[in-house]
Amino acid sequence: MLEKDYLSKNPNEDGYFGDYGGAFLPPQLIDHFKKISDLYEEASGSESFQEELRGIRKHYQGRPTPVYHAKNLSAKAGGAQIYLKREDLNHTGAHKLNHCMGEALLAKHLGKKKLIAETGAGQHGVALATAAAYFNLECEIHMGEVDIVKEKPNVIRMNILGCKVVPVSHGLRTLKEAVDSAFEAYLADPENSIYCIGSVVGPHPFPKMVRDFQRIVGTEAKEQILEMTGKLPEHVVACVGGGSNAMGIFSAFLEDDVQLHGVEPMGKGTKLGEHAASLAYGSEGVLHGFKSIMLQTEGGDPAPVYSVASGLDYPSVGPEQAHLFSVGRTVLGSANDTEAIDSFYELSRLEGIIPALESAHATAYATKIAKDHPGENILVNLSGRGDKDIDFVVENFGYPE
Ligand SMILES: *Cc1c(COP(=O)(O)O)cnc(C)c1O
Predict the structure, then answer these.
(1) What is the rounded average pLDDT of the residues 255-267?
(2) Which residues line the pocket of ligand 1, CB cutoff 6 A?
(3) Average pLDDT, stretch 148-170?
(4) Residue of 203, 195, 204, 53 whose CA lies nearest to 124
(5) What CATH fold (topology level) applies to the domain 24-58+96-206?
(6) Residues 6+ apart with CB under 8 A from 312
(7) How many CB atoms lie within 10 A of CB 166?
(8) Among residues of the chain, what percentage have pLDDT more than 70?
(9) What is the per-residue pLDDT for 227?
(10) What is the structure's pLDDT at 360?
(11) ∠146-147-153 over CA atoms, to 5°?
(12) What's the 27 CA to ligand 1 centre distance in angstroms?
């Protein structure tokens, strides 16, 4: 069990969750981040800010999203009953808009004109471009040239939404280079722009802000499942890339007697480079401005990572995920590529819900553990819908028998 009022006491003033977090920044950015942090505390504590956010959640995003009892999936799994928190029904089709709307609202309060970020698969880019359109802000998304070719539909979406997509042509031309490029663009004009991080990662205050904006998922889900079943679920399951959808749903159950499972992608195997299971195989280090547990080469560089789900393909996790795991409040689960693909089809065919490949890792794991827990309930965060993945899955894996 964690201390009482854990959420309001963590992170501490310096942005640490236990041993992890902090803000490792170039000197010229320290004051800017301090200002963002101070103004975030002030704004988020104000009734008008919360009122505006509540209105956006309800009238624009379409919240609350439902919790759905997946009876057919539960019967097939044989054991526990599986419930899905339907973030796939959130506007733009995933949980990411929850923090993008929050970050953009804050940018507006800070008087910023431009939102800057990187994107890998394009999901964060699309969500942020959506938020920018809503708030009438400029939006600039940095993306590796390799990803631009691979994720064409999302590039088109960003263009339609009026966002500028900046191609990044150095190094491996994927996510890591896109982060560097976006950060440089932000460094060039921190007065008028704000860097909007895509998960509970990065320097303080971003892991805290993104968690707070995602808490809506857990708050709603707890109320909904209590109403449906009359009790708390015994288990809550979420996939972990950076950890934002997991923090969103876990946050409501931290002080309860509920087992919290973070599911990491095991990709193709257990060798470095074949997976992105940062907590299972990583060690302490600093990356992208924060201290956490990460997959590293012997030389201390971020290791190459792989998962069939691009959104889980990150060599670290947010500092709070590292903390909750290291103190034993969360347990680790895993699902590999094959299990995720099987679950993608299983959920589609049994329930009529096509999940994102990221979310399919969570449902794969939930169906694996269901057998061991008859009479219990498992609440899964279905973080997004799978429309973005259908071409890729069918071309690479075909249809099941
Ligand atoms: C980006 C993404 C994830 C992974 O990010 P987290 O910060 O770990 O939540 C998971 N699911 C979907 C649908 C995503 O788009």
Answers:
(1) 98
(2) 94, 96, 123, 199, 239-246, 311-312, 356, 358-359, 383-384
(3) 94
(4) 195
(5) Rossmann fold (3.40.50)
(6) 239, 240, 241, 264, 265, 276, 358, 361
(7) 16
(8) 100
(9) 98
(10) 98
(11) 130
(12) 31
The mean pLDDT value for 375-396 works out to 96
Coil vs helix vs strand at 171: coil
By CB neighbour count within 10 A (0-12 exposed, 13-18 middle, 19+ buried), where does 36 fall?
Answer: buried
Q: Which of 308, 312, 389 has the most ligand 1 atoms within 8 A of CB, as the residue to mutate?
A: 312
Q: Per DSSP, which regions of 156-258 are E strands?
A: 164-168, 193-195, 235-239
Residues 6+ apart with CB under 8 A from 394: none
Supply the residues annotated as catalytic: 96, 118, 383
All structural domains of the chain with their residue ranges: 24-58+96-206, 62-94+215-397
Residue whose structure tokens are 């008008």: 48
Question: Whole-prediction pTM value?
Answer: 0.97
Average pLDDT of every residue of the chain: 96
Closest ligand 1 atom, residue 247 Cα: 9
Task: Please tell me if the domain spanning 24-58+96-206 has the same topology as the one spanning 62-94+215-397.
Answer: yes
Q: How far is the CA of 383 from the centre of ligand 1 (A)?
A: 6
Rounded-to-integer distance, Cα 296 and Cα 283, Å: 7
Task: Place 206 in a pLDDT band, splitting at 50, 70 and 90.
Answer: very high
Q: In the structure, what pLDDT confidence band is assigned to residue 176 with cuts at 50, 70 and 90?
A: confident
CATH topology for 62-94+215-397? Rossmann fold (3.40.50)
* Omega before residue 27 within 30° of 0, cis: no
Within 8 A by CB and 6+ apart from 163, the residues are 125, 128, 129, 132, 139, 140, 141
CA of 28 to the centre of ligand 1 (A): 31
3 state SS of 25 = coil
User: What atom in ligand 1 is closest to the CA of residue 199?
Assistant: 7
CA 312 to ligand 1 centroid distance, Å: 7
Phi-psi region of 196 (alpha: psi -120 to 50; beta: other; left: phi over 0): beta
